[in-house]
Each structure stands twice: as C-alpha cells, then as structure tokens.
Write a structure and sequence with these properties.
Shape: globular
CATH class of the largest domain: Alpha Beta
Oligomer: single chain
Number of domains: 2
Number of strands: 16
Distance between the termini: 45 Å
Radius of gyration: 23 Å
CATH architecture of the largest domain: 3-Layer(aba) Sandwich
Strand content: 5-15%
Helix content: 25-40%
C-alpha cells in the first residue's frame, strides 16, 4: 500500500507523515487532510504548530493593582491593596495575584507599555496598530487574520483564527480582517450561553446595531452541527443556508473559501468538540473552576468565576489546530469602586493565567503557545472622588508567558507614581513583533498585498523584545 516504515529500528512500529502522504498519492483518494490528521494522531505522529492566545483585559487594567504596586506613594495614589513577594527575588506584584506571584518564573512582567491609541477597544492589542491606520483601504488586519492569510488553508479542520472576546459590544469588533477582506475574518462562535457578560446600556445599543451577523455559526448552526450530515444533499442544503446569510452581510466574495472551511470543519467536528467543555476531563475542568472569594462584591459588568473556563476553551481550541485565539476578561473600566472590583475580578485572571500556563506545560505545549495578557491602556495614578481610576494611555501593564521565550523577568519601570515609563519603554508593536517571532514570522520583512496591489509590511515599526529571544 505504499506505507513507509518509521526509522526507529526497521520494524513497523509507526508511520511517518511522508508515509501517510505517500499512501494518499498511491491511490487513497479519500485520504483528505482531515483523515490524515486523525490517522497521524492514532499513529502517534505529532505536527507541532505554534499558536498564540490573546487575553484582553477589557476596559484597561490598573497598573498598580496588577503588576506595578507603589507602596511608597502617597495614599491617594497607592490605594488600598498591598504588594506581595513573588518567586522572583525583589519582584513584588499586587496581592490580588497570588498564583501568578508563586509562579512568577514562568511569566514576563512588562511595566512600561506605552503608545496606547487611547481607544476603548482591543484593536491595538490584536494588531499593534492604531485604529485609523490605512482606514481608507479598510484598515490594518488583526494578527490572527494575517496568520490565516499566510498559513491557513480552506481544508483545515479548524479555522486559523477564533475570536471569543465578549463585552463592550464584542470589544468593538477589534479582531477584524481590515483590508484583507471577509475571507480572513475570525470565526466568532456565540458563547453568551456559556459566559454571561452584562453590558452597560450604551453597549447594549451598540451590540444591537451590529445585528445578528456578528457571530460565526458555521459550526454551531442547529441545522449543520447535529452530526447527521450523512449525505451530500443534506450538506449542500445546510451550506445554502449559510450562503444566504453570508450574502445578506455582504460577504459573497468570501464564499468559496468559507464553503471549503465549512465542509472541513463540519465533517471533522474538531472545532465543535473543542467548544464542548463536557468533553473535558472533569479533574481538569475543576482546575479551571475557582470559587468566588467575594460573591457580594461583584460589579454588574464584571465576570464571574465560570469565566476562568475561557482560558480552558482557548487551550482546547489550540489543541484542535487553531493558531490564534482571543478571549476577554471584563470589566476593568473601574471609574468607580476600583478596589472592591479588583478584589473580585483580578483573582479570576490570576487563576486563569496560572492554570493555563501549568496546563500547557503539563501537556508539553507551553513552548509552542504564546500567551499575552493586556488591555487598551492603564489607569490614572490618582484615585478619583468615586474611589476609581480613570483612563491613562501614557503607560500600562502587560504579561507574557510561553512561546519558547525567556521568562522570569521584569521589563521596564515607571516613576514613583506609576505615571510614566522611565526605563525601557515597550510599544504595542514591540509586543506584537515578539508574538510574530514566536510564531516563526519576521513581521518587519514579510509583506501582504493590499487592495491597490501594494505590498504592506506586517509591521512598519517595532522589534521583538531582545530580552525574550
């Protein structure tokens, strides 16, 4: 049948990827990529693929109540929360992050993130660029859309880019494809039944204006994902329904690739399985299920304890073959009651980050998956009259883990009031360049063609953080 033996000892103990491909070329016409991947898994052949998980701290996290406490600052600046020691000598972070503190050697703490666009969305955290950049031709694409363009295939069993961000009207549609067009939009399954995030009234109106087409339902559509695709006519009928929905949202130019993706995804079921947490080991699920420390203190727009399972969904999607996953944790827009809200919310992020890193490490995936947790800006050093902190684009915090990067270090510092960076300012494009580097892409030398036929570099500035590579 054309099988090629493994080169272990000459015995038929396994098959190589080349063997499977040779078998297909020898006449196995039904050996699709989906079947190949399943066969590889059964034979123990693993094809490592680099991935990234973006964790958007929706609303803008306060630097002092996360990783840059200032215990020597005046009371009206330092606030109520105390610093705690970490596993890294000399490093202290806020008391609401005890698990990250204990595992600090696995993280990079960036205290000098600068250059915020000052907008209440996640676009800069998804692309490195300001929202207005190249707006006349559709705007810059998110990193996930670029990865889909460069490395995705219509035959992939899972989409390259999945957006699970919630809140703030889906964080202002920040994971968008820009001038690449709708073919490279992220898959955006509706996870509102799994994770409720109450919106402010203004955000509810904004979400309503987005209409029903803001979520991708290629895998979760009731007529398509029910496991009864047992003949070609039934499949085509379901795809025709998608075609009509796509046409209504002005996406017919993307139909050919979407159709190919839909067939691969629906017949394999990998994405649907990854989104189904009932398939997870109950012990692992419990690890991602913290108890609410202060249930009465929860602000009405803040996440609850079950939101930590978004980190688990991200890991499951990466395992299923997704290259870029975006999740969000809300609500860091703490214009009032900053300290009680941070006592409730930040331990959830703390638990999620530590558990995700430990889980990936245990599975041998940590060096292949880069995790970036950050927000659109920091918050004011001075506490306002409502006990909150307002928007502060001048400097903010960020955390990085995994990706084969050098960890266990602090980059940059701020002045005594956490008002501005005084050493090693790090721009959003520097972080994005580092993520591209971890994915094996040189963003300053790689181009994609815009609608006018002009090559555009993935990044026009920034460089990978030299401390990490």
């Amino acid at each position: 049948m054309g099988w090629i033996l493994s080169q272990n000892d000459g015995h038929r103990t396994g098959y190589t990827r080349r063997g499977f491909l040779t078998a297909g070329a020898a006449g196995f016409g039904s050996l699709t990529l989906a079947n190949l991947l399943r066969a590889e898994a059964r034979a123990g052949i693993h094809n490592s693929r680099k991935a990234v998980i973006f964790v958007h701290l929706d609303g803008g996290p306060p630097q002092m109540e996360t990783i840059d406490p200032k215990p020597e600052a005046p009371a009206e600046i330092r606030g109520e929360l105390q610093p705690i020691d970490t596993a890294l000598p000399g490093l202290q972070i806020c008391e609401v992050m005890p698990q990250v503190a204990a595992a600090a050697e696995k993280f990079v703490f960036i205290r000098s993130l600068v250059g915020s666009d000052g907008r209440h969305d996640a676009f800069q955290c998804q692309s490195g660029f300001a929202q207005k950049d190249l707006r006349s031709i559709g705007g810059r694409p998110a990193l996930g859309s670029i990865v889909a363009k460069l490395e995705g295939l219509p035959t992939d069993e899972a989409p390259p880019f999945v957006d699970l961000m919630q809140g703030r009207a889906l964080v202002r549609d920040s994971a968008r494809p820009g001038f690449l067009g709708p073919t490279f939009k992220p898959f955006r399954p509706d996870i509102s039944s799994m994770f409720q995030r109450e919106l402010e009234d203004g955000m509810k109106n904004e979400l309503a204006r987005l209409g029903s087409g803001h979520s991708t339902s290629l895998t979760l559509h009731s007529s398509l994902a029910d496991g009864r695709l047992d003949n070609r006519m039934q499949l085509l009928t379901g795809l025709d329904r998608i075609r009509r929905a796509v046409d209504e949202s002005g996406m017919m130019e993307a139909m050919d690739q979407f159709t190919g993706q839909a067939v691969g995804i629906l017949t394999s079921g990998r994405l649907a399985d990854a989104l189904d947490l009932t398939r997870e080991d109950p012990k692992v699920l419990r690890h991602y299920s913290p108890r609410a420390a202060q249930p009465d203190a929860r602000f009405y727009t803040s996440e609850g304890p079950t939101a930590v399972r978004k980190f688990l969904l991200a890991r499951r999607l990466v395992e299923a073959g997704v290259r870029v996953v975006s999740i969000s944790m809300s609500d860091f827009d703490t214009h009032r009651s900053n300290f009680s809200r941070m006592r409730q919310l930040m331990p959830l992020v703390d638990h999620g980050l530590k558990t995700l890193v430990a889980d990936l490490q245990q599975r041998g995936m940590l060096d292949d998956v880069t995790i970036v947790a950050w927000g659109e800006f920091g918050r004011t050093p001075r506490i306002n009259a409502d006990g909150g902190r307002d928007h502060w684009p001048r400097v903010g915090p960020a955390l990085i883990a995994g990706g084969g990067l050098r960890r266990g270090q602090v980059i940059g510092s701020t002045d005594r009031t956490a008002s501005s960076a005084i050493t090693r300012p790090v721009r959003y494009k520097d972080v994005i360049a580092t993520v591209y580097h971890a994915l094996g892409i040189d963003a300053l030398k790689t181009t994609i063609v815009d609608p006018h036929g002009r090559p555009q570099y993935l990044l026009d500035a920034g460089e990978p953080l030299r401390e990490l590579i």
